[in-house]
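WP5 quarterly update. Target: tRNA threonylcarbamoyladenosine biosynthesis protein TsaE. Source organism: Paucilactobacillus nenjiangensis. Length: 153 aa.
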Amino acid sequence: MEITFTNSTQTMNFAKKLADCLEPGDVLVLNGDLGAGKTTFTKGLAEGLGIDALIKSPTFTIIREYQGGRLPLYHMDVYRLENGGGEELGLDEYFDGPGVSVVEWAQFVEDELPHDYLSVNFRRTDIETERRVTFVPHGYHFKKIIEDLNNGN
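Structure tokens (predicted):
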């Protein structure tokens, strides 16, 4: 499924709808250049989960944990692990835990990812505020979520 968002509000609103469908242990992989909308999308997820906190990019901390919502949110930026080291962070404990994991730059920890996850790919267009976002489900659970969202459920 591919959607074109023309502003950050649309991006956040879709992420809020997606958050309603998420369960403990769900993993979302966000791909895209710097400034493509990954953190904006994560802010929408957090709002949809009922998390009332300032969501910031975890670039320098690698993992930010947010509590207080329907499910915890684990926001990860693993760019700095391009030379390895994901297994030392205990990522599997997050992926198998009670929250939702959002992983940016996941190609650097590909071996650590669970079998089932949702890949969310952001592309800029020629219009400054516009983003094309492609959702690629891995596993039945995420295929069902994308089908439901695509059908307006």
